[in-house]
Amino acid sequence: MKFNLPKHGLAGPRWAAMAVLLAAAFAVVAPSGAQADQPANSATVAAADRAAKAASGAAADKVAADRTQADKSNQAAAASNANSATNRYLAGIDPALLQRRETLMAFKSWLIGVPGISEAGFVESANYPETLSTTLLWSGRSSLQDAVRGEAARRGITVTFKSVKYSRKQVQEATDRVWASVHSPVWKDFVVTSVVGPDLTHDGIVVRGHHQAKGADTAAAQAQTLASAQSVANAVDDVAIAPDPTLYATRSTDFSPYNAGGMIRGSDGSGCTSGFAIWRSGYSWTTTARHCTAASWTAWDAPGNSYGNAYDTSASGGRMLTGDGYQLMFDGAWNDPNGFAKTVVGFADLSINDWVCSSGANSGVHCGIQVDNLSVSFNDGFGSFSTIRGQQRDPSQIGGAHGDSGGPMLVPYSTNNWTTVGAAGMLQGSLGPQTSSCGSLRIATTCASEIEFSSMRTVVNDLGATLRTG
After folding, report:
1. Who is most buried in 48, 57, 241, 444, counting CB within 10 A?
2. Computed from CA positions of residues 432, 438, 440, 442, in that sequence, does the dihedral angle turn out positive or negative?
3. Which of these, 25, 323, 377, lies nearest to 208 by C-alpha position?
């Protein structure tokens, strides 16, 4: 089943219903700051990258013109201003609590870099910064648990192991079976829109979707669908009724090299947001969401400032643009005239209960978003991949809006006078209900409290690239 996006949706006019695949989020990745492996055909990739840069007229070296670098430095210098959105957010939180949050995220980065951690039974984690403790969902028993407990103790962290029924591999296999079967008669008229992976409330997967017939989403029909789902994969814990997804597809006059969070206009008239910058083959690149499909992109209100052409894509929902990217990220409202920007210093690896901010070009910065699941499968019309789900906990705020797709999901750090952020993800869209009570937006009129976003570390690793940091 396909559905129409509003005029200012992210990309093409129609999209497939949500699909499911947990491979991206369930891949153990390198620790923070590590260099991603280049693909086996890296020489071929490098040659293609050189050609793409040349075709787009982008700079052929790692450093852009001195003038633009100086201007970007001025943006970064303004980042310590107390009026920026993330600074206002940080000012309202106990500094000791912020430090505990950062300690727990650093431990997560260490944990997912332990060789064999997934095979040993690690599934996911949930953080409790109030008590500097973490709960690790773990399938089976492994000697690695003792090493993990020891490293946590060294950092002052209390670890609890919560036994779960299924391993990462088993969850992924079950999810693959569900998605491979969605066009078979077993589902009758039920449309699968997403699959939610394990968290603190369930060990298996929850299949989300709806029946096509009007009024057919009854308790009896749901029970029948659950039985059908469990015949496909015994790791299905439940079936939940959910609507079709909404994909989010503006700071509008940025110049090269480009910050994350800029408002970009596609050659087809669509609008998206620029993501965190990356390095590959010795060049810097801008990123956005894969479902932002225009052939070329410019700054929304400065058509002479080219973000380049659409280029390579990642299996986790990211897209490279040939324009040069930079290690800064816009902070503040979409129409903030001050142009606050923060420096990206590395990846932020999230756990359940962690807090993040979104920075969409259409709606601006929104903090107070709490992670409640790390493996919600999402289909952007090009394929299914795993995303992280965040819920806005402040009733006066939103999570994101149309026009924000591709934008940075970040963790603001309390260090360095509040001028730095960690790259947590790339905003994709929302599986939650939409509302028009959004506050100030640039172009679109709908938004949501719930948002789904890709892990930025996964996007970067999938592209065989490294994160550009300052």
Report:
1. 444
2. positive
3. 377
